[in-house]
Design goal:
With 224 residues, this protein is an alpha/beta fold. The protein has 6 helices and 9 strands.
Length: 224
C-alpha cells in the first residue's frame, strides 16, 4: 500500500491545503492513505480523518503532528492529543510513547526545515530518508546512510504544503489490511520502503519565498 506519511493542511500556518483538496489529490494519485502532520497540533489530522469518513472514501487518514522539539522536528503518528512544543527530543518522544504514538524523525539533516540532525540512541520507529521538498538530495542521502548504519527503517513523505504535491513522495507499507492500527503496526515493524520524486524546484522556491516574507512580517510586527 502507498502512504504519504508527511502532509500539511491548512491547520499549519505555512500551508493553505484544505482537507477536501488533500483527499481529492490523494485519490487521484492512487494513495491508500496519508498522515496529516501539522505543526504542533493534531486538530487538522483528526478533522481530516472525520471528513474522509463523512465522504465514504476508502482512504486511511492517520492523525499526526510535527512537534517542534528543542533540537528539531519530530513526527508523531496515531495520537489524538497535542504534545507540548520545545521539550527536549527525549521528552517529546517519551510523551509520544505515553500517548501510543508512532515516532518518525523527518528530514533530519535539512537545517532550513529544523532538522534534528543526530538521532542515534532515540526511541524511534523510523527515519524519513526521502523528503520530497529537499531542494538538493544531499540531506536525504545522509539520512538514508545514517538510518542504515543504525538499523532504523526508512520512510518517505512529500512534506506537502500545497495539495497538488500530496503523494509526490510516499512510503510503500506491507500491512495485512488498510486500517489505522495495521498500518501503524507495519511501520513499527519496519515493513516499509521509501519511494517518490522531488517536488519541482519552482514550487520549492515559491514556498521558500513565502516563508521568508512571513518571517519578515513577524519581526516587523514584534518591533512595532
Amino acid at each position: 500500500m502507498k502512504f504519504d506519511l508527511h502532509v500539511h493542511s491548512e491547520y499549519s500556518k505555512d500551508s493553505k491545503s484544505s482537507h477536501d483538496d488533500i483527499l481529492k489529490i490523494a485519490r487521484k494519485r492512487g494513495l491508500d492513505g496519508f498522515a496529516i502532520c501539522d505543526h504542533d497540533t493534531v486538530e487538522g489530522g483528526l478533522i481530516c480523518k472525520k471528513r474522509a469518513l463523512e465522504l465514504g472514501l476508502e482512504l486511511t487518514v492517520i492523525p499526526g503532528v510535527e512537534v517542534s522539539s528543542s533540537k528539531g522536528h519530530i513526527l508523531v503518528l496515531g495520537i489524538s492529543q497535542n504534545i507540548e512544543p520545545h521539550l527536549s527530543p527525549e521528552e517529546t518522544i517519551e510523551r509520544a510513547r505515553k500517548l501510543g504514538g508512532t515516532v518518525i524523525i523527518p528530514h533530519p539533516f535539512k537545517r532550513s526545515s529544523h532538522g534534528i540532525e543526530s538521532f542515534e540512541g532515540f526511541d524511534i520507529d523510523a527515519v524519513e530518508v526521502f523528503n520530497s521538498r529537499c531542494l538538493f538530495n544531499k540531506s536525504n542521502r545522509k539520512a538514508a546512510a545514517e538510518a542504515k548504519r543504525l538499523g532504523i527503517p526508512g520512510v518517505a513523505g512529500s512534506d506537502s504544503h500545497v495539495p497538488e504535491m500530496v503523494g509526490q513522495a510516499y512510503t510503500e507499507i506491507d500491512a495485512p489490511e488498510n486500517t489505522l492500527d495495521a498500518v501503524l503496526e507495519a511501520i513499527q515493524e519496519g515493513k516499509v520502503s521509501p519511494a517518490g520524486k522531488n517536488t519541482p524546484t519552482p514550487i520549492i522556491l515559491k514556498q521558500m519565498s513565502s516563508s521568508a516574507r512571513r518571517k519578515i512580517k513577524k519581526k516587523l510586527f514584534r518591533k512595532a
